[in-house]
TrEMBL record:
Residues 139-150 have a biased composition (Polar residues). Residues 5-133 form the Nudix hydrolase domain. Its cofactor is Mg(2+). Gene3D superfamilies: Nucleoside Triphosphate Pyrophosphohydrolase. Residues 139-168 are annotated as: Disordered. One of its GO terms (molecular function) is hydrolase activity. The keyword Transcription regulation does not apply. This is NUDIX domain-containing protein.
Length: 168
């Protein structure tokens, strides 16, 4: 049996002032996830911190300068010989005009709840499905709690997880 090697990738939920998230469409000629939509980001180089890698990757892919806020999740992707672990962070654009690299052929700013309408990379589809389930569960549990509605959708599940952790 051949064991998979784990590789680290970093991604960002970049949100604009309306709460929309930037997604990028991979080139149809890409080796991984051709024609699929994904979050900006990529591999961490040896000796590079994951926040440095994410800032570098986003700039290479979009020419946007960003700042990072929080870790919001993780997802896995099984490739031929590598199992990629995607650390997903939240962030905002500081500066720049969006210009795509050759790695991508399209972009869109979409609300989190509309992500399932796009053909997503499998790792992102898994993350979105998990978050949507947690959001639905939290909305049902906290139907009349106005403070939870003020948080960005992907942070709701983190708040709920931390609240549950503190209770135990």
């Amino acid at each position: 049996m051949i064991n998979n090697v784990f590789g680290l990738a970093v991604r960002v939920l970049l949100s604009d002032e309306e709460g929309k998230i930037l997604i990028l469409k991979r080139s149809t000629h890409s080796k991984t996830n051709p024609g699929k939509w994904e979050l900006p980001g990529g591999k961490v180089d040896q000796g590079e911190s994951f926040d440095q890698a994410l800032i570098r990757e986003v700039f290479e892919e979009t020419k946007l300068k960003i700042y990072l806020e929080h870790v919001v999740g993780v997802s896995e992707q099984n490739l031929h010989l590598i199992r990629a672990v995607h650390i997903i962070m939240s962030g905002k654009v500081m500066d720049g005009e969006l210009t795509l690299s050759k790695e991508h052929e399209g972009y869109a700013w979409v609300y989190f709840e509309n992500l399932p309408e796009y053909p997503l990379a499998d790792w992102l589809q898994y993350f979105v499905n998990q978050q949507m389930q947690l959001i639905k569960q939290e909305q049902a549990d906290n139907n009349d709690n106005p403070s939870s509605k003020s948080l960005e959708p992907w942070l709701n599940s983190l708040k709920d997880s931390l609240d549950k952790f503190r209770k135990n």
